[in-house]
Design a protein that fits this description.
With 330 residues, this protein is an alpha/beta fold. Helix content is 38%, strand content 17%. The chain contains 11 helices and 12 strands. Bound molecules: ligand PBG.
Length: 330
């Protein structure tokens, strides 16, 4: 490490004015680094607010194009779609996930028609569709791995056929990336990318998301037998290594802010595109503090997103994406 000594070296010299600070900045943040997650619901009319996430709504298909239009205009490269499935369509096996007319497939077709250059990320997991709220099927109270993977591969193909560009398996079953890659190739979907939620932790920060999708009331127990233990870090590298070996094009770390050390390790170890998900609980925490005047909104948004970039993330999934893009576009 080359270092200097005071007073010949004064590190504050490089902070003395805005143009110098810009010139020596080590990290950049632009709209290219943003992915916007949105909640799609059944029925039409005004988008319904998600009470736990101030500023976030669930939107029906009739308003979807209007909802997304600003994000496209601002240059956000991709959005991630999540369905609020009507309770009547949920069952033990999550079979609505395989319906070519489900909310996600309809949304994907509509958006591809309206905005052919907007990237679409589709979450693959069964929790929005099961009446027990788990990401796979239950056998004797345990989420059965291989049986769930067999369904998830079909869910992935169903989404790809509808126009989803990036399949994002968030279920944490073992072997699902390889199985999904094989199924996509088999279906001729060789360009459909896989962004695996490789290091996804059993976190308390998903609460508001589950409320938004209505999967919270349904969830029996917790997800600790498939999502990672927050105490673990080396294990995240094994998860990433296996997903890459199975054909993942990009990987994700989730949640974001409490796991920046994992983002850094994955980036340093693998040098592959790694994304971080600033999840619903992080959004809620920040948005509520901002609402109460405890945090400056613009600076808070940019600082947290910059933190992900500084940790080595290629990009961030954030409910602040559109607001951040407005700020970044000045
Ligand atoms: C579904 C899924 C979850 C999130 C993304 N995909 C919830 C969960 O695993 O329970 C959470 C996203 C957020 O909290 O913003 N498997």
């Amino acid at each position: 490490m080359i270092t200097g000594q005071f007073p010949t070296t004064r590190l504050r010299r490089n902070r003395v004015d805005a143009w110098t600070r810009r010139m020596v900045a080590e990290t950049s943040l632009s709209v290219d680094h943003l992915i916007w997650p949105i909640f799609v619901r059944d029925g039409g009319g005004e988008p319904t607010p998600v009470s736990t996430m101030p500023g976030v709504t669930r939107v029906g298909l009739d308003r979807l194009a209007a909802h997304v239009e600003e994000a496209v205009r601002l240059g956000i490269p991709a959005i991630a779609l999540f369905p609020a499935t009507p309770p009547g369509l949920k069952n033990e096996a999550g079979s609505e996930a395989l319906n070519p007319e489900n909310l996600i497939c309809q949304a994907a077709r509509l958006l591809k028609r309206e905005f052919p250059d907007l990237g679409l990320v589709g979450d693959v997991a069964l929790d929005p569709y099961t009446d027990h709220g788990h990401d796979g099927v239950l056998r004797d109270g345990y989420v059965a791995n291989d049986e769930s993977v067999a369904i998830l591969t079909r869910q992935a193909v169903n989404q790809a056929m509808a126009g989803i560009d990036i399949i994002a398996p968030s279920d944490m079953m073992d072997g699902r990336v390889g199985a999904i890659r094989a199924a996509l190739d088999e279906a001729g979907e060789i360009h459909t990318r896989i962004m695996s939620y490789a290091a996804k932790y059993a976190s308390s920060f998903y609460g508001p998301f589950r409320e938004a999708l209505g999967s919270n009331a349904a969830l029996k127990g917790d997800k600790k037998t498939y999502q990672m233990n927050p105490a673990n870090s080396d294990e995240a590298l094994r998860e990433v290594a296996m997903d890459l070996a199975e054909g993942a094009d990009m990987v994700m770390v989730k949640p974001g802010m409490p796991y920046l050390d994992i983002v850094r390790r994955v980036h340093d170890e693998f040098r592959v595109p790694v994304f971080a998900y600033q999840v619903s609980g992080e959004y809620a925490m920040l948005a509520h503090a901002m609402q109460h005047g405890l945090l400056d909104r613009e600076r808070g948004i940019i600082e947290t997103l910059m933190g992900f970039r500084r940790a080595g993330a290629s990009g961030v999934l954030s409910y602040f994406a559109v607001e951040a893009a407005r700020i970044l576009r000045g």
